[in-house]
Fold these 4 entries.
Entry 1:
Amino acid sequence: MIEKPGASSVDPTGRRVDLSFLFISYARTDLLQIAIESLRSQLNLGTLSGLNYEFVVSDDRSPEPWASVLRSLRVDRLVVLPKNQGMGSNTNQGVWACRGKYIVQIQDDWRFVATPVVFERAVQVLESDKEVGLVLYVEPDNPLPFQARRLEDGTEYWVFENDHFQGFRTGSARPYSDRPHLKRMDFCVEMGPYRERCPMHWVELEFQRRVANQSRWKVAWLPSVHSPTVFEHMGAGRSFNPVYRRATLLGSQRCIPLLGQGFRRLRPTLRVLRDFARPGKRIHR
C-alpha cells in the first residue's frame, strides 16, 4: 500500500481539496504549459459544483532548458525528483504530493478539449458506485467486456470486468491505462505504487495486470459524456515510450505500397519467432 508522507486533504489556507489535477512531466514543458492552460481556461469559464481543486506537477528531473520553464509555472505544488528515475518513480511522487480525495492524472502531452462537466460526472460515478475506483477519459482502443450501469439521472456508464489472468497482456487488452483518467486516492493507496526502475511501458503493463487481478476495484467509462474527445494527444511525435514509437513506425511501414502488404503478411510469423526467442518476456494476448 502507498504511504503518503506529508500529504493532507487541505491546502495551506485551510481549504479542503476535493480534486487534484496531477500532471506527469519530463522534458516537454512546452507541451506541459499547453496542457495546463487548456484545463485552466475551461475551469475559469465554469464551476465544478463546489469542488475545490489544485494543480500538481511532478517532474522527473528535466534538464535545461525545460527545468527553467518548470519554475515559472503557475501551479499549487511542483515536485521535482532529485535525479531522473523513470515513469514509475515520477508518478508515485506525484500521487504522494496530491491532497485531493480524487486525482485526475494527465501526462504532459494531453490537451483538455472538453468542459468541466466531465469531471463532475466522473466524481458522481465514484460517489454513487463504491466498486468503481477509476474512470477513463480516453476510450479503450478495443472492445472489452463490461456491465452497463446508470446514475440516478439516467446517465449510462460502463464498468469493465477484471479478467483475473495472472500473465501480461498487450496494453489495449485490459481497461486500465495511464492515459488521462480520474481515480480515487483510496484506489491509489490500496493498489500500491507503480513499479519503479523499469522501462516505462512495463510500468503501465505491470500496474494494469495488478488491477485486473484484484476484486475490490473496477474501471469505468462514460460513453455519452466522454465521447468523442475529452483529451487530445499532442505528443505523438515526441513519445519516450519505445513500444509506442515502434507501433508508430510499424504503422507507417504498413502504408508503403507493396512493402506494406508483404509486411502485413509476415508480421504474425515474426511475432511467433519473437515470442519463441524471448519466452521470459512474452506478453500474452
Entry 2:
Amino acid sequence: MSVSSAFGKGRPALMPYFTLGYPDDETSLDVVAACAAAGADALELGIPFSDPLADGPTIQHSTQVALQHGMTTRRCLDAVAELRRRGVRVPLVLMGYLNPILAYGLDAFVADAARAGADGFIVPDLPPDEAGEMQAACRHHGLDLVFLLAPNSPPDRMRPVTEQSRGFVYLVSVTGVTGARERLPAHLEAFVRRVRAVTDKPLAVGFGISTPQQAAAVGRLADGVIVGSALIRAVEGSPRPAEAAAAFVQSMKTGMKASPPPSSPPEVPGKNAARQTDAPAAPK
C-alpha cells in the first residue's frame, strides 16, 4: 500500500515511531502491534544505528540497547514480516540512516523490505539530490521514499524536496535533534504555510511532540503528527509495555479528535515572513 493511504480520513494521521529491538525483539513487536491496534494510522519503525546524529537522548538510548541485544538490519526486516503475519495492516515505514543500508546493499535492502511488507523509507541523511539510486529501487518495488524539510530550509530547496518526496513530506519542527519538548516552536505555523504554498502532498510534523495537547495543535496545521521519544518513554517506564503503548496512542488520538486537518492550504505569508537562513538543519 502507499504510505499516503494513512492520510485523507477527515482527521490528522497519527504516526508513532518506535525503535525495533527495544528493549528486546519481542517487546518491540508487541509495542508496534499494540500501537496499530489502538488506532495508529501508520508506524515508523526505527532501524538501530551506532551513530544516530539527529536523535536525542531517548531514541539514542533505545537504539544502543537494541544494538547491544543484537538487533541488525536483517532482523529489522524480519520484524516487518512478523508484524504482517500478526495482522498489522497499516503502512509501515522503515526509518534509518544510510550507512546500514549501504552495508546491507541498497538494491537488496529495498527488495527485501518490499518482500517483508514495508511500504516506504525515511533516510534522514540521504538528501534528494543524492538519492537517485534509492529512488529508482523504490520505484521498481513500489515503495515510497520520504524526504525531510527543516524550518530553515530555503525556499529554493522546498520545491525539489516536496516534488521528489513520496507518501508525504516530513516537516522537522525544530533545527535540532529529536526529543520531547515543553512547547511547540513559535515558527511552526508559518513553516507549514510556506511548505503548503509549494505542494499539495500530505505534510506530517515530527520532533518535539509529546502531549495530546501538542498533537492537537499540530493536527490543526498539518495532515499528520509524528511522535517518537514520548512513546518510548511511556513504554520504558511501564511493567506492561504493550498496554502502555496502546494507552499512549489512544490518549493522542483522543486529543487529536478536535483537530481536523486543513481542508485547503492556508494563505501564504508575506515575503518577509518567508525569509529563512541558509544554515542546514540537523536531519532526522
Entry 3:
Amino acid sequence: MRHDREHKSVAAYLCGYISHMPARLDLLQSVTGLILALFIAAHLLFEASILISKDAMYSVTKMFEGYYFFGEVYPGIISFLAAAIFVIFILHAMTAMRKFPSSYRQYRLFISHMHNIQHNDTTLWFYQAVTGFMMFFLGSVHLYMMMTMPSQIGPYASADRIYSDWMWPLYLLLLISVILHAAIGLYRLALKWGFFEGKAQAKKIKQRRKLMKKLMLISIFVYMSISLMSLGTYMMIGYEHADHAGERYQPAQLEILPEQKQQQEQVPQPDKGMQQ
C-alpha cells in the first residue's frame, strides 16, 4: 500500500512537469488538416463544373460571389474565403513542419529507416511531407491570386489565366500534390485517432485498415482523373479564346447580371435611318 501511494505521488509529481503542448499542437494539426482536406474535395468538384458546360461553371462562380443570395455580385466574398483558408493553411503548415527532419543528418537517417523497414505507412508519410512542402509554395501563390483578384474567375477568365498567362504548369503540380496530400492525410488521420478501430479485434482492425487504404487509392484515382480533365478543358477553352483573352464570358441562357446589362446598354446602337 505504501509503495502504491509513493508510486502515485511520484507520478502526480512528474505529471506536473509534462507539457500538454505537443498534444494540443497535434490536435490543431489534425483539425486544420481535416478542414483543408474537406475544402479541397469540394473545391475540386466545383472547379470540375466546367466539364458540364461553361454556363454551369459560370453559375457556380456567381453563387460564390453571392448573386443568388443578395441579387448582386460581391467578389469580396471570395477574397474573404480565400483569406480564411490561407490562415488555416498557414496554421496547418506551422504545426506540421515541426515533425520534418531539421537537418540533413536527420533526413538521411529517416531515408535509411524507411528503406530498411519498408513499411507502407512510413512511405506514405514521406510522400505527404514532400507534397506538403510543394503545396506551401504552390498553394500560397494560388491563394494570394484568389485574395487579390477575386473577380478574375469564370469560364474565360480562368481559362485565360491557365493558358494565356502560362499558369498551367503551376496548377498541374498543385493538383498532383494537393490530391495526394489530402487523400494520404485523411487516411493517416483516421489511423491516428482510431476513427474506424474502436474495440475491434486485431484481425478486424487490419481488415479496416486495408479498406481505408483502398478508399484512399480510389479517391486519388477519381479526383486525379476529374481534376486533370478539368485542367485540360480549361486549357482547350483558353486556346480557343486566346485571340480574345481578357473578354468575359456571356452566358447564353442564364439571366443577365446587372453589370452585364449595363455594359450592353452602353454599346451604341445603329441608327434606324442609316439601316433604311
Entry 4:
Amino acid sequence: MRENYVPSGIFPPASFLIALLATMVFSLILAIPYALAIWFIPIAFISILAPIAWGFLCSLIPGRTITSGHIRNPMVAGLAGFLGSLPGYYLTWCAWANLVFNMGDTVAIGSGRRAMSVAKSSISLDQLKELALVPKGLFSLIQSVNEVGLWSISRSSGNVHGLPLWGVWGVEFLMIVGVTAFLYAARAREPYSEETQRWIPCLKLGQKLAFPDDLAQLRQKLDDGDINYLLSAPVEEDIKNSNYLALSVYQDAAITEAYLDVDAFTLEKKNAHKSNNLSKKLKIRTDLARALVNRLS
C-alpha cells in the first residue's frame, strides 16, 4: 500500500515570528519598485508577471526562514507569507496613489499597434508618508479613481472602472499574497526527518528512464507502492526527441526512510515537453532508493 510523506505540523513559534518579520521587511522593500514598474511599464505581460515575481522573490529570500527555522507546518508557513506580504501590499497602494496624485502630461511611446501612453509622475516621500498614515484618505482616493478608471483595454473602449476594476485589483491582491503563501507552504511540505531534526536532501537523478507502454498502469503500480518498473526500465538516451520519466530521490544516510518523486515528460510540438506528476514523495525503502541513485545518478 502506498505511503507518502506527510509534514508533522511542528513549528517553533519563534521561527514563525522571524519568518513573518523577514517577509514584512522584504515586502516593504519591494513595494515602491513594484508600483513604479506597474505605472511606467503599462504592458499587460508586466502587470501579470510582477505580482507573480513578488511571490517568487519572497520565497527565494525571506522564505528561506521557513527552511532555516524548521517550520514543518504548511498552514503556518503559508500564514507567514500571507500576513508578511500585507504591509508591502499596502505600501504599493500608497506609492501608486502618490503617482496618481502627482500625475502630469501623458507621453506616447512607440508607434502603430504597439504604441502606448505613459503619464509622467513622481513619488514624494512626504506625500507617501501622509498617505500611509492616513488610510481614510488613501481609500477615498482609490475609490475616486475606481469611479472613472485610468486605463482602457483598447483605444476604442472606455476606461475600465467600477466593479470590473475592483475585480482586477482583487486578482492582483490574490496573486501577490496567494503566490507568496503557496510557495511558503510548499517549502514546509518538503520531507523532514524528525529523527535527525533536519530536512532530507533531494537528489534529482541525472539519467532519465524510458517511457512505459502503459502510463496509467505505471501510475496504478506507483499508487500501490510498486516501483519495480523504475528499477528495471531502460535508460532513455535521446530525451530531446522522446518521452521519458524523471526521478528525484529524498534520502539521508542517517535515517531509515526515503521518498521518491516521479514525473512523466511527454513530447509536445517544437521539441517542448509537458510534465505530469505520477507520484509525489512516495515512501520507499532506503535500499531501493540507493539502487535508483547508483543506477541513474
